[in-house]
Amino acid sequence: MSTAIRFVRRGISGFVLRRVLLGLLTLLLVSVIVFAATQALPSDPARAILGRTATPESLAALRKQLNLTGSIPGQYAHWLKGFVTGDFGNSLAARGEPVTQVLGKRLENSAFLVLIAGEVSIPLSILLGVLAARRRDGPFDHTSSLLMLALAALPEFVVGIALVVLFGTTVFHWLPAVSLIPPEDTPFQHLKALILPVATLVLAVSPYIARIMRASMVEVLESDFVEMARLKGMPERHVLWRHAVPNAVAPAIQVIALNLAYLAGGIVVVEFVFGYPGIGSALVDAVANRDLPVVQALAILIAGVYVALNLMADVATILVSPRLRTSLR
Amino acid sequence: MTEHLTRDELLRRAAAGGALIAASGALSDAALAGGRAAKPKKGGTFRIGVSGGSTKDFIDGQDIVTRPDQARIVTGWETLVNFSPQFKLVFTGLAEEISAKSADVWTIRVRPGIEFHNGKTLGADDVIYSLQRLVNPKLGLFGGAALKSLDPTRMKKVDKRTVRLFLKQKDVTILDALGQYIAGIVPVGYSPDAVGKANPNVGTGPYKVQSFTPGQQSTHLRNPNYWRSGQPYFDKVVIIDFPDDTARVNALLGGQIDAMTDVPPAQVAVVNGHSGTKVLESPSAAWTPICMRVDAPPFDDVRVRQAMRLIANRPQMVQQALAGHGHIGNDLYGIFDEVFAKDLPQRHQDIAKAKSLLKAAGHENLTVDLQSTNGALGMNEGAQVFAQQAKAAGVTVNAKILDSGAFYGDQYLKWPFSTDFWGSRNYLSQVAAGSLPTSPYNETHWPDTKDNKFLSLYKQALKTVDRKKRAAIEHEMQKMEYDKGGYIIWGFSTLLDGYATKVKGLKQGDKGVLPLNAFGHGYRTIWFG
Question: Is B499 helix (H, G, I), strand (E, B) or coil?
Answer without folding.
Answer: strand
